[in-house]
Amino acid sequence: MTQRLLPAKRTNAPFHVSLRAAACYLLVLFLTSISSGALASTFYVKENGTGSGTNSWANASGDLQAVINAAVAGDEVWVAAGTYKPGGNGNTDRAISFAMKNGVNLYGGFTVNETLILKWKIVMSSSKN
Question: Mind listing the pLDDT tens digit for each residue in 77-115?
Fold first, then answer.
């Protein structure tokens, strides 16, 4: 009785591994894009505002630094036209300034009825790009 060797069975394992790796990569890329941009918030600041600065001009804050502090990278701070002083309107110390946060964009000069920022220019960006 002679033994007969059968040819090795071909598999496409490397292809399957590559396909799985690509799918994982795309999933990570998608989740990263969601966390970095799609969930960004817009904060609102206007003179004499009394709100928290979230959701709309009607809830705008009057404290620019507090809103900057609440924002995270990817968020936008929309500031109505006016005069804002670090430390509040009664501040006379010209040695202090607003402290920006990396990745937070600040837009200014709004009339407090805008809902889109289509052609607005960045007033200040703390991005290091």
Answer: 999 999 998 987 788 888 899 999 999 999 999 998 888
Residues in the chain, how many?
Answer: 129
- Measure the CA–CA gap between 125 and 37, rounded to whole angstroms: 15
Give the angle subtended at the CA of 80 by the CAs of 57 and 96, to the nearest 5°: 120
Q: Reading across the β-sheet that carries 42-45, which strands appear in turn?
A: 42-45, 76-80, 105-110, 124-125
* Residue type for position 7: P
Per the CB < 8 A criterion, the answer to whether 100 and 68 are in contact is: yes
**Does an H or E element contain 125, and which?**
strand 124-125
Which backbone phi and psi does 60 adopt, to 5 degrees? -65, 145
What is the pLDDT, as a whole number, of residue 41?
95
Q: Closest by alpha carbon to 76, among 55, 99, 107?
A: 107
Place of tokens 């071909």: 10
CA distance 111 to 109: 7
From 49, 110, 47, select the one nearest 76 (Cα to Cα).
110
Q: Which residue has the tokens 């990263």?
A: 32
Q: Which two tokens stand for residue 28?
A: 């990570």
